[in-house]
Amino acid sequence: LNTTYYPYLFVDAMYIKVREHNRVISKAVYIAIAINEDNRREILGLKVDHNESFESWQSFFQHLISRGLQSPKLVVSDAHKGLTKAIQREFIGTAWQRCSVHFKRNIVEKLPKKEAGREAISKLKSIFEADDLETVRKLKTLFIEKYTADPKFENALAILDEGFEDSIQYMNFPVTHRRNIRSTNSLERLNQEVRRREKVIRIFPNTQSAFRLIGAVLMNYTDTYKM
Q: Are 115 and 138 in contact (CB under 8 A)?
């Protein structure tokens, strides 16, 4: 990985079932993809581990770094605490973008289900559709001011306020890149392809077989879609 610089790194984990010592257990599959300076996506790494934790994410990042990966400008992921801590520890000077799709979903789950909630969803979407940071922050302030007196919105507003800045880091990058770096959607599509193949097997006989099959899926995906 030391021959190419990757300004944007996307990471996520999914769970599979594996037989181990006559038991069926869940294991975490870590996948990293990146966008290079030619704006092409590449799959950088794969790991199968016991669970999703700070130590496991740190080990995954250290493996990528040992292969020559330089600190990216931005890492895009969900808000798993162990993951975000590992990003801060291993990639000094790198910004973290909280997946905006997951973030909005977390807020929507806490909104009222009736008319007021539907109106709020529309206004929430408009915040993240703004073209500049000043407007984004202004719309967020107006949103909070509009609903802050209603106790039904308390939890949703708390989530919005707490995670907002981490969810708009993409706004600090070129306009032509923003659509591709504000969420982990591209990585989730890849995960869906892995999941489609994994469902046929249901339970992997061991960790090594899981690594081989998922690795083959990733290589085939790269060849098919010319990432």
A: no
Dihedral sign of CA atoms 210, 212, 213, 214 in order: positive
106-137 confidence digits (pLDDT tens): 999 999 888 768 899 999 999 999 999 999 99
Summary mean pLDDT of the chain: 94
Nearest CA-CA partner of 77 in 187, 227, 195? 187
Does residue 66 surpass a pLDDT of 90? yes
101, 107, 108, 112: CA torsion to nearest 10? -170
Task: Return the amino acid letter for 210.
Answer: A
Helix ranges (DSSP H) in 25-148:
54-66, 81-90, 100-108, 115-129, 133-147
Put simply, whether the predicted model's pTM sits higher than 0.90 gets the answer: yes
- Which has the closest alpha carbon to 169: 79, 108, 81, 109? 79
Spatial separation of the C-alpha atoms in residues 69 and 154, rounded to whole Å: 42
**Cβ atoms < 10 Å from Cβ of 38:** 7
Integer Cα distance of 158 and 113 in angstroms: 17
